[in-house]
Amino acid sequence: MKNVYLLLFVVLFVSGCYSYREYPVEYDYSYYGKFKKYKSFAFLENNTAITDSTVSYVVIEDIIKSRLQTQGYNYKLEKPNLLVSYKIYYDSLSFRGYDQPDIETWAKSAKEDIEYNPRKYDLRKGTLLIQLYDRKQE
């Protein structure tokens, strides 16, 4: 089974090289977040009303999992610190967020007194929105 995933990854990677496009990654986070206290994560059950047979949710979750693990978080099904939710928006949408430094850059200083600068994002079709929730928060 691992060989199938490896083959799929290689095929996607090679085909991606032929049609390379840079996809923007935007962050929106709370300056009061204590990101260093979180050690583990798990996915919320994906309740997407629209099931798209062209989308591999396993691949999406594997990519998110890989990214979070490279940032030092452990995947843990029982009592994780963070719950991960994601949704694909098939139409364009406007999203209000904030103009903020890259989360990894900010996490090094963890300043809480930085001002929030509102920003409107016009997101294109096919936006993947990933949200992280503190499991202990309401």
From TrEMBL:
Transmembrane segment boundaries: none
InterPro entries assigned: DUF4136 (IPR025411)
Domain DUF4136: 25-137
Pfam families found in the cross-reference section: DUF4136
Record's protein name: DUF4136 domain-containing protein
Organism: hydrothermal vent metagenome
